[in-house]
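Cross-posted from the bioinformatics board.
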Amino acid sequence: MRRASAVPAPAVPREEPAEASAVVDFYGEHQAGIATEPQAHCTFVALDLREDVDRAGMARLMRILTDDAARLTAGSAALADSEPELAVLPARLTVTFGFGPRVAALVPEKPSPEWLGPLPAFSVDRLDPHYGDGDVLLQVASDDPLTLAHALRMLLKDARSFATVRWHQPGFRRARGSEKPGTTMRNLFGQIDGTVNPVPGTRDFDDLVWIADRSSWAHGGTGFVLRRIGMDLDKWDRLDREGREQSVGRTLDSGAPLTGSREHDEPDFAAKNAVGFPVIAEFAHIRRARLADPSQRIFRRGYNYDEPPFGTGVSHSGLLFASFQADVTHQFVPIQRSLDELDLLNEWLVPVGSAVFVIPPGCAPGGYIGETLLG
Ligand code: HEM
């Protein structure tokens, strides 16, 4: 029988790669997971509160979940962690919490942003209630899917006496390290998606994203919209490359506007082709998504999804379109309305899920997420 002592000890103690132990600060003025450079994996989960959870119960829940999130994102086990070994590699784990209308209604004396609630109906929508609304949002993201799965399980275990899972939507981007940091993501249509986006760390981003109203419990937080949008890849397969590029107004290889040569070139919406038609068509997604008022912009931080196909299809995929904006009515809704009126991409897209949450501000050590509402 081979004895364990015969196995030589490693000459050099095992060290984890820096990427795996990278930590995103949990505490701060704003919650992490928004201005954070997007991690490779992200799961969005909505919870329904149990009937008997009142303001005090909700505060208790958020104290527990905040403690879990603070520990896990720092690479430490949660209290009573059943698998503490899975907590040691955070790989930029972030946990971001959001509140739906029912949580806000627990404290009626503190007014909530008027946009909190379902979005207006859009003609493109084919909404499945299985992917709609919810009382508490958990956005859990990491570059490592095992870390993410463990963190989410710890949070849900601690939440289960207060709430049940309403929906669960996992999404992904390319693996960390497979592209240079800062590379814009590609969606499953193969498009570079996220080029024109406010840049975290700039005044522009802060103005567009963070709620600035000192009289509100949501001050320092933001508005979150999640749209689950099915992308019909089987139908997209039948469109030639030129048609694909026309539908958005950008090329597929570099993501440059059809009037430019590099990804970040400014599109020239006035340019005409030889026969007098706009180079970037009237129906192009980027023309329709850009409104004249620069305060009507949003911060997009979406993820791809890819689920088992059913029927005769070979794919069941789409985009978890996630956007952050200080005012959903002023920023998100008019853009979505414009796309609803005209956008060639609609030929291949079907929004099937829709949810809106207030993301409360961040907290300091000793505090908890949601204290400005529930405290
Ligand atoms: C731009 C794809 C849904 C808002 C773009 C671009 C692509 C794209 C390829 C060009 C590159 C870029 O700047 O990111 C998609 C796909 C969608 C989708 C595949 C659905 C599956 C939406 C929705 C909204 C939206 C629902 C908002 C309601 C925007 C905005 C831009 C944009 C604001 C930048 C426009 C500009 O150049 O000013 N999208 N998009 N998109 N999209 Fe979408």
